[in-house]
Design goal:
Radius of gyration: 14 Å
Helix content: under 10%
Oligomer: single chain
Largest sheet: 10 strands, parallel
């Protein structure tokens, strides 16, 4: 699935869904999407990325939260990858806002870079960030212009 140059007045500049599950080997790509509220590219309930699934979000914007995506939860299974690059939020979570929990399982990869939030969480604004052994998380070049957490603003951070 490729979504580019799409916009929404409210949530989900590219896609608004009650939940999202990317099956093994599935590929989803967003570029140049905009939202007047939350989730510049994607706004939904829980997101699950199965083995060898890939989600890429680039150059998206949300006016209030989650420049790349806003979701209830994010579960990155072994060998799955999500990459959010060059996204901006006029509020919190320049790359993503996850209300509940991000879980990156062994062999899963989460990359968030070159993101800006006008409020908290330049790269990520998350309730709980749970990292399993052998999970890869790369967060860099995030900026929270007016508040806390230049890269990550988390209620709880746990690494096994």
């Amino acid at each position: 699935v490729i979504v580019s140059n799409a916009s929404a007045e409210l949530d989900g500049g590219g896609i608004l869904a009650s939940s999202a599950e990317v099956q093994p080997g599935g590929r989803v790509s967003f570029s140049g999407t905009r939202s007047g509220s939350g989730g510049g590219a994607l706004s939904c309930g829980p997101i699950v990325l199965r083995g060898n699934a890939s989600v890429q979000i680039a150059n998206s914007y949300a006016a209030l939260s989650g420049g790349g995506l806003r979701a209830q939860s994010l579960d990155v299974m072994p060998d799955a990858i999500i990459e959010v690059v060059g996204t901006t939020s006029g509020g919190e979570g320049g790359g993503m806002t996850i209300v509940s929990m991000i879980q990156v399982r062994p062999g899963g990869t989460l990359i968030v870079r070159d993101t800006i939030a006008e409020s908290a969480g330049g790269s990520m604004h998350v309730g709980t960030l749970l990292l399993s052994e052998n999970a890869t998380v790369e967060v860099s070049n995030g900026s929270a212009a007016a508040s806390y957490g230049g890269c990550i603003f988390a209620g709880t951070l746990e690494s096994n």
